[in-house]
Amino acid sequence: MMRASPFARVTSMSDPRPIVWLAGYPSSGNIKAQIGLANLLFGRVTSITDLDSKIPPMTVQFRLPSSPASRDQNYVFTHLVATDGLINCGPIAGIVYVLRDPIDAGISSAGYLLPRALDYAAATPEQIETARATLIDFYMRFGTYEPYIAYGYGTWASHVLSWLNLAVLRKVPFHIIRFSDMRDRGEETLRAAAGFLGLAPSDDQIADALDNWSLARSRELEEKAIAGRERSRFYKPMLDSAYRKGWRYHGAGGIGYGRDRLSDAQWQSARFIFGPMADAMNLPIGP
Known about the structure:
Blueprint (H helix, E strand, L loop, with lengths): L18 E6 L5 H13 L5 H7 L19 E5 L5 H4 L4 E8 L2 H16 L7 H18 L3 H6 L4 H14 L4 E5 H6 L1 H11 L6 H10 L2 H13 L12 H6 L12 H4 L2 H17 L7
Helix pairs in contact: 1-10, 4-5, 5-14, 7-14, 9-10
């Protein structure tokens, strides 16, 4: 008898409101988008746990969380591929998808995964860079990382495709927030996302959201979480020694730096793995 996929299990729905999914592959600028939208929907974000109470993350156990009851929709964040298990969590009002150059996203993710790949606190700088290079090489050959498969995130291409398919098959309104636009066209990007969600923010609300989603502000929230041992994406007790050595969740937030980090063979593999989907999304990933 065929075993059911672990990603098909669904916890009983406790929030009947239509869901607005904020989705994106890891390291695509998801926290930035999450902060900006949470600010507009529910007021200024003051900590990572405050953020996750306003637009809460969906867990890999498929327990549907609830955003504040002040809105008619339930706003939920996820890295998960849009499988049947996730789709069946409840009616879907819309999808906001965060999109980034897959090569930049993969290299950024390598930094995030380093403490899981070696004893970061005990490692020399050379060992850390070797581990980083090994992670990046795996990603450029297979289009994802092993932990991301286990978590239900899939490959970058399968992630994008799953959410596009969901929008088309279920006729769900779909809005893309591009990482590069958040960096370079922030006000326009926020106003477009707000309009998609049916919001009409004031100039002051937009200005506050722009201030709060900046990389500098996110880093402040991270340092606050670490100093206060605030269990969250920004602070995990098992990574205490890595924090003390200087490891942080946030990277540099760069754009287009991937090509210079890759060998010719890695670049050709990356173009083969990511190129068709990136081209379909009109997402330049290099010459």
